[in-house]
Design a protein that fits this description.
The complex is a heterodimer of chains A (about 525) and B (about 140). Chain A is an all-alpha fold. Chain A has helices spanning about 30-45, 50-75, 100-120, 125-130, 130-145, 150-170, 175-205, 210-220, 225-240, 250-255, 260-285, 285-315, 320-340, 340-375, 385, 390-405, 410-425, 425-455, 470-485, 490-505, 505-510; strands at about 80, 95. Chain B has one domain. Chain B is built from 5 helices and 2 strands, in the order ααααββα. In chain B, helix 1 packs antiparallel against helix 2 (about 35-55), helix 2 crosses helix 3 and helix 4 packs antiparallel against helix 5 (about 110-135). Classes of the chains: A mainly alpha (about 525), B mainly alpha (about 140). Chain B: Pfam families: MnhB.
Chain lengths: ~525, ~140
């Protein structure tokens, strides 16, 4: 009940009294839209025929909002909205800067393409079990993670997409899936516990969870609080989420078990949320601590990329091999975090865009290979080139992209990372990035040679599988892959702006706390 | 668990608990209570009813599928936040209005949000409880 006389109280000390322009709603739209669509899809879970089209409409709307949001941020700087009108450190802020909005944009593109592909991959039973509601709620969680400006809220969105990902992972309730999901769930929950512990410690030290507030108070708190310990906690927690060595064992144990479109979503999007959180917390909130830990991060990065790709070389199941390629791509992104200079971070961010699209596309490619050749195993797959030349073309583009060779998208971020490592005098890190590229070429080239080139008389071809939808989805994903490879400058600009935004947080802080508004 | 005493009292107990849960939900605006705890009480009511009389009577009594109920709750909560769009205030700001049903009653998006939370909790916990109870008898 409203207490009588409330009107007389001066609210300006507690609330935002200025009217909120409708355009600011763009910052919550990428979260609100998937939630509303997810809720509706959950209500009509048994209407399996309309599920896919409703989900696709929702994801198109999300993608459009993310695009408009990014354009607005590039034009006018970060956008902030604080929930419930409370003034920032008390209300929960959504703060979108170039980094968050651009990653959210790419993630929603990947989700949309996966939703297209899922119309063929997810049958009536999968829809009945709620594939599309889980998909929408997972994208709400991912969007929220990228756009929130509050550390505890980041934890909440991590939980949202984690819980939804459990649902997607066990869709089908096969024995293997439950086995994979148990490992995934337990190890991820341990990571989440570290995250929560670190957040609680940070709240104890700062008395605030708003990221802009943390960033501006860090220098005064540093004298009295063990911030390096905190940074180490966050590194461990988000490293676990991002699948960095040596806390990455959940990924190879689970990513080959779900439906291929789920694996594509996970491999494309989820680990990058961990990388994003590392960038946000270590680079923007605790930069001196990151500098102190940069040696550790560098070794972790090198180990993750080399051991990841070594794992990929050893596998005969394409999906398992791709799981290890995902890990090695996380290592490459961590290299930029270890360097911590503008070019390195821009390389990391560019690589994150590239990796989201290419990893999702590679998993979808594996799905199509399975559809055409009847198997995920490199022992039996063969002769795809002879019957389906188009699949060979897509495979070649994606393998070049993943290995970092021209003309595809992996080249430029690796160039940036290598140059940044050499400039920083970390030649060994540059060597690790280059060696990873070489081994990735071997690992995926092996897939290409065995599955696509190898001729075999008794080659199995699955009947009545139409790869048309698969070609269309890969075609959509190949456009940004080739664009980023052939004309990288616009993307480099975005990545550099994103890196600049977290290296110098003053614009971010100024957006949340305009001059004069005291906490 | 299907003793005569339990089976006779369970429906009364369950209906009392559901009533109480609504009381707790509405009380929660200014005093201890609210959508989450109210939803838990209602879900335990359905769980008790299910233990006593079997799962299918509960499903019949609920009419809607529990996950559909939680989906509806999520929709209500999200829409109560979206109403702020038309008032020019940020997402999830409480908007108050007064309606007259004999006596003036203040209603707000805050209570709509809480009802949404209540439904989400009722739906999800009930669906988990019913699924577990079903497995036991299968």
């Amino acid at each position: 009940m409203a207490v009588p006389g409330t009107e007389a109280v001066d609210l300006s000390g507690a609330m935002v009294l200025a009217a909120t322009p409708s355009a600011d709603w763009l910052v919550v739209a990428p979260v609100a839209i998937p939630i509303v669509f997810g809720a509706v899809l959950l209500m009509f879970r048994h209407e399996t025929r309309i599920q896919a089209s409703v989900a696709i409409i929702g994801l198109i709307a999300t993608l459009a909002c993310n695009l408009l949001l990014l354009l607005r941020i590039m034009d006018q700087g970060p956008v902030v909205m604080t929930m419930g009108r409370w003034l920032p450190p008390f209300g929960i802020s959504f703060t979108a800067d170039v980094l968050g909005a651009s990653l959210a944009l790419v993630a929603s593109l990947v989700a949309l393409v996966c939703a297209f592909y899922s119309t063929a991959d997810i049958g009536t039973i999968g829809r009945r079990y709620g594939f599309y509601p889980f998909l929408m709620l997972m994208m709400a969680g991912v969007g929220g993670s990228f756009l929130t400006g509050d550390l505890f809220n980041l934890y909440v969105w991590f939980e949202v997409f984690l819980i939804s990902s459990f649902g997607l992972l066990i869709l089908g309730s096969e024995h293997r899936q439950l086995d994979g999901a148990t490992k995934y769930a337990i190890l991820n929950l341990i990571g989440t516990t570290f995250f929560l512990t670190a957040t609680a410690l940070l709240y104890g030290a700062f008395g605030t969870l708003n990221m802009a507030d943390i960033a501006r108070k860090a220098d005064s708190v540093r004298e009295v609080a063990p911030l390096t310990t905190l940074a180490m906690f966050f590194l461990l927690a988000f490293g676990m989420k991002a699948a960095a060595f040596p806390v990455n064992f959940w990924l190879p144990a689970s990513y080959h078990t779900p439906r291929i479109v789920t694996a594509a979503l996970f491999g494309g999007v989820l680990t990058k949320v961990g990388v994003y959180a590392l960038l946000r917390v270590l680079v923007m909130l605790l930069p001196p601590e990151r500098a102190l830990l940069s040696g550790v991060i560098g070794w972790v990065a090198a180990a993750t990329m080399i051991l990841g790709v070594m794992g990929a070389l050893a596998q005969t199941d394409i999906r398992r091999a791709l799981g290890f390629v995902v890990i090695s791509s996380v290592g490459i992104m961590l290299a930029g975090l270890a360097l911590g200079n503008g070019e390195g971070l821009a390389g990391t961010i560019f690589y994150a865009f590239h990796s989201m699209i290419v990893m999702a596309a590679l998993y979808l490619l594996a799905g199509i290979m399975n559809g055409l050749g009847g198997s995920y195993s490199l022992r039996t797959l063969s002769g795809l080139y002879a019957n389906h030349p188009l699949i060979a073309a897509f495979a070649l583009i994606l393998i070049l992209a993943s290995a970092g060779l021209p003309p595809a998208s992996g080249l430029w971020p690796k160039v940036m990372l290598v140059r940044a490592s050499l400039d920083a005098g970390q030649g060994w890190l540059a060597l690790a990035v280059l060696a990873t590229g070489f081994f990735t070429t071997l690992a995926l080239g092996r897939v290409f040679i065995l599955a696509v080139w190898r001729q075999r008389d008794e080659a199995v071809t699955a009947e009545r599988y139409s790869p048309l939808l698969g070609y269309v989805t890969l075609g959509i994903l190949a456009v940004p892959v080739l664009f980023m490879g052939l004309y990288p400058q616009p993307v480099i600009n975005i990545a550099e702006q994103a890196a600049g935004g977290i290296l110098d947080a003053s614009t971010y802080i100024g957006t949340v706390f305009p001059e004069g508004a005291q906490p | 668990m299907r003793t005569l005493i339990f089976r006779t009292t369970a429906p009364y107990l369950a209906s009392l608990m559901v009533l109480f849960s609504i009381f707790v939900l509405l009380r929660g605006h200014n005093e201890p209570g609210g959508g989450f705890i109210g939803g838990l009480i209602a879900a335990s009511a359905f769980a008790i009813y299910g233990i006593a009389c079997g799962v299918s009577p509960v499903r019949r009594a609920l009419y809607f599928h529990p996950t559909a109920i939680s989906g509806f709750g999520l929709l209500v909560s999200a829409c109560s936040g979206l109403l702020s769009l038309f008032e020019g205030v940020p997402f999830l700001t409480g908007i108050w209005t007064e309606i007259n049903v004999g006596v003036p009653v203040d209603i707000s998006t805050v209570i709509a949000f809480d009802i949404g939370v209540y439904l989400v909790v009722v739906g999800s916990i009930t669906s988990i409880a019913l699924a577990l109870e079903e497995r036991e008898h299968a």
